[in-house]
Amino acid sequence: MIKSLSTSAFATTFMLTSTIVSAADTAVITYDKVLDGVNNNTHSLSIDVSFSGDVIAGMEQSTNSLLTGKREEAQNLFEGAGSQARYNFVYRDNSGEKWFVGAENASGLISGTWYGANGDKGDFTANFSCPSPLPSYCSTLNMTADAIFSGSGLNYSRAIDESFLQDSNDPNKGLYVQSDDGGLPFPMGFNIEFTKTFTLQSFKFGTYNNGQGTRATGFTFEVWENNGWVNKGTFNFNALPSKQWIRQEFSLSTPVTTSKIRIAATGTSDFYNGGRVLMWGLSFH
Predict the structure, then answer these.
(1) Check whether domain 2-127 has CATH 3.40.50, yes or no
(2) CA–CA separation, 34 vs 192, rounded Å?
(3) 165-199 per-position pLDDT tens digit
(4) What fold, for 137-284?
């Protein structure tokens, strides 16, 4: 059964990608390997996907991977469909096949469960559609923080979820990285890679003072150009004289068009325990 389904998947994918019916978008699927209704985003995969009616198909030659499946038409009474479209699709690469079943939410993200061939299973989230002209969770391929923001104690980098890059003043949502036991040497930061290029200029970004000093006094904004990081702006946070969170609006001197960015702290005034750094709340405007 799996073999015949895979053959059909290849045939359908070949037909759709050979007769382009819609522009291919890079779909990002994040998943975990524990089926408990919560996606911990411990694994991810990406593939260029096209639609033809209710058929989904994608192929990535560099990884020898295929995707094929079906998207339900929302509010189709003849199919018994409701307001949220349901999806089922199969992803195949050199490691085998994963079957996915899920439904779309109000923000256009698909979430549900997946099943492997040998009893492996878990939760997943996918972005087959991401219309926002600015970076958001559904257009994020990955986010990686420097090693100093992970490890033991209070060194921490929050995994991305649906609140990533949202305009929110809640530190419990969105991007958040902190180094608690040795914020030196500088610079230290994080990289974000998007599924496509964006033109960026204005953004919001934050830091924190717990009463012992501001945990990021300044930072750089870099983009990936010609196989290297290029600094496009150097910024400073307002001074925080007392315990508080801060989130400011910044603007690059000129717009930049890129699919990869890096933000790195360049200083701290909280030198307790060797120097501490905290950054949070990135969003674009």
Answers:
(1) no
(2) 26
(3) 999 999 999 999 999 876 678 999 999 998 888 99
(4) Jelly Rolls (2.60.120)
